[in-house]
């Protein structure tokens, strides 16, 4: 058996997955009647609910493009520093992707409710928000998707010890965490893989290993995007 967070590709994790396997995903769109678009997205027990309101006209504003508002709420209690950080990251990702020039003097509000956080909650929030925006009919230049990686503890951690889509226990034991979001341009060639649109890192990370970690994450993005498209087409995907 490996030590810390270092199972080899042949060694199972506590939940039975191999190192480069995603948890079971579930997505349902249109779950909130009063929202213009909504989605519920789960990576096993990690569950996020997103509501999109707008674009709606804001008469007092004179901007030539819509403004994007992000609100992140924890499972319980008031928002804290972590939720504020998620708001900033989500806004930085989606603001360039939403075609705001189509809706001058308007606002698009994205409300992210974390229902349960059992790891990789930022990635789940990104995937859920993308489906909710598409459910609302909000035009986007690209469709983003995201995955998280937990980096192995100890001197031999790194890309070869990374765990894809970690649960909360794996996050707690990790030396570092990386969340990678990629934007799939609808018309661009995919020969070079999806473009990185967001990179969020915490803990100990060797910069020389970053490229390998990004490539590992990119390998899951096509799967996640196809999963989201099925959810939109079918209403629910398992």
Overview of the structural elements:
There is one protein chain. This protein is an alpha+beta fold and 238 residues long. It has five helices and ten strands. The strands form two sheets. Strands 4-5-3-2-1-10 form a six-stranded mixed beta sheet, covered by helices on one side. The protein has a four-stranded antiparallel beta sheet with strand order 7-6-8-9, with helices on both faces. β1 (25-29) and β2 (37-43) form a beta hairpin.
User: What spatial form do the alpha-carbon principal axes imply?
Assistant: globular
Ends distance: 32 Å
Order of helices and strands: EEEEHEHEEHEEHHE
Coarse structural class: alpha+beta
Report strand %.
25-35%
Main beta sheet, described? 6 strands, mixed
Name some characteristics of this structure:
alpha+beta; 4-stranded antiparallel β-sheet; 5 helices; globular
List the helices and strands and how they pair.
Blueprint: E1 25-29, E2 37-43, E3 46-57, E4 67-73, H1 81-94, E5 106-116, H2 121-135, E6 142-151, E7 163-164, H3 168-173, E8 176-185, E9 195-203, H4 210-218, H5 221-234, E10 236-237
Parallel strand pairs: 4-5
Antiparallel strand pairs: 1-2, 1-10, 2-3, 3-5, 6-7, 6-8, 8-9
Helix pairs in contact: 2-5
Q: Could you write a compact summary of the structure shown?
A:
This protein has 238 residues and is of the alpha+beta class. The protein is built from five helices and ten strands, in the order ββββαβαββαββααβ.
